[in-house]
Amino acid sequence: MLTRLLLVLSFLFALPAQAAGIAWQPWEGAFKSAQAGNKLVFLYLEAVWCHWCHVMQKTTFTDAAVQAELARHYIAVTVDHDADPALANRYRDYGWPALIILAPDGSDRSKHAGFMAARDFTQFLKTAATGSALETQTAIAEIGSPRLSTRARDLLLKMHDDSYDPELGGLKSAQKFMDRDSIEYALAHREDPTEQQKAEKTLDAARALIDPVWGGVYQYSTHGDWRHPHYEKIMRVQASYLRLYALAYGALKRPQDLRSAQAIRDYLFNFLRSPQGAFYVSQDADLIQGQKAHDYFALGDPARRKLGLPRIDKNLYAQENGWAIEALTVLHETSNDPPALEAALRAADWVLNHRALPGGGFSHGDHDQGGPYLGDTLAMGRAFVALHRATGKAEWRHRANQAAAFIVKNFAAPAGYFTAAVSKDGLAPVTDVEENIFAARFFAALSRVADAQHAMKSLTAESFIANRFEEAGILLADEELTKIPR
Length: 486
Prior knowledge:
Elements: H1 2-13, H2 30-37, E1 40-46, H3 51-58, H4 64-73, E2 74-80, H5 85-90, E3 98-102, E4 108-113, H6 118-130, H7 150-162, H8 180-188, H9 193-206, E5 220-221, E6 229-230, E7 233-234, H10 235-252, H11 255-272, E8 282-283, H12 294-297, H13 301-307, E9 312-313, H14 318-335, H15 338-354, H16 374-391, H17 394-411, H18 433-445, H19 449-456, H20 462-465, H21 472-482
Parallel strand pairs: 1-2
Antiparallel strand pairs: 1-3, 3-4, 5-6, 7-8, 8-9
């Protein structure tokens, strides 16, 4: 009886935002509708795995005052964060959910990160409707030099040191997670005992985020420690941690790092792998959407399964598959794991058969509204580089170079590479820091020096670096450029 009740409640909480009495419209054409009706655009950028998104749909959007204010002044649009990498990257600092108000010309009017209760959200809408636009977001990064200056490198090194939490490991932040680039940099410089200690302490601390029952990694922990996890399991995090623990095992030969990588591998195989061999996107934080699941994740496997499984987003995106393929391949490289390589090859074959575009690029999903997006081709290109290293087969390097050529042709900005190939309904494409770090390292791995330097031009300006928190990935990219034979 309890199981049936939980399933019914889960269905009710999972009802889409459209059921809340709001006339949600598709993103495509939203600005034309806003111009015709003399209204603003409200963009609700949600993540389908996000607890607070579920709460907002259940509470805030069902409020009569919220519905009335949206109907009076706004064209309301809801977009899945994972389905649209361009919007996800544009508003990366404002999720989840991201609450974005735009003028009919596409300029930002107001932005808020995260859940808002009905009363606060109503006031947010009223204020934005009568206010002026924010300063226009710069679509093009400041153009720096192709390489880091000594001063810029010193600044990045200081940031790397200052951002580290010597007591708990990880970064000095309210949310605890394992930062990909800072740990990879520390592993790459493990001849320095301080860097090795940073890596080991963080790798050990982050193990608290691995689900002891099913494997897989929770996204992060709140309260400034590692003991308050948010339970969503998203592919970005799974692939990042799998790759880092595999690299750590290759570098340090600690058995516990291999066990952690294998626990994440097993979760991917058992929960996020489709029958076709491609990988899904995420698993929800909640069993009953909108209700915290701490008690559920404290249970063992039989008790969890008796109550049901948190929803899995079964979209098959090229970007997420590229991340998984690269991570699984690195695991095979460092630990001789034939099942991991076999899974990587099978997923690569699926993406090539279902997401490939003419010229070497890749689409995102089945029905992209925008795109193509840089992230899909970049992730698959990096996956091909890893497969070439692991197998020695020339076809993978050839595919990597095709992906590189597609990126240069379709995404080049004055400095770096745009996150999308074309503007999206009035929103000019932007460059993304993480993607350009990935791009610089991808091109460097292919010895495409000029293309890597073009990515670096969006990352090396001292004024840009001074406003960042921790970007050890730029240091890695610069060092990898140095190693390319002249």
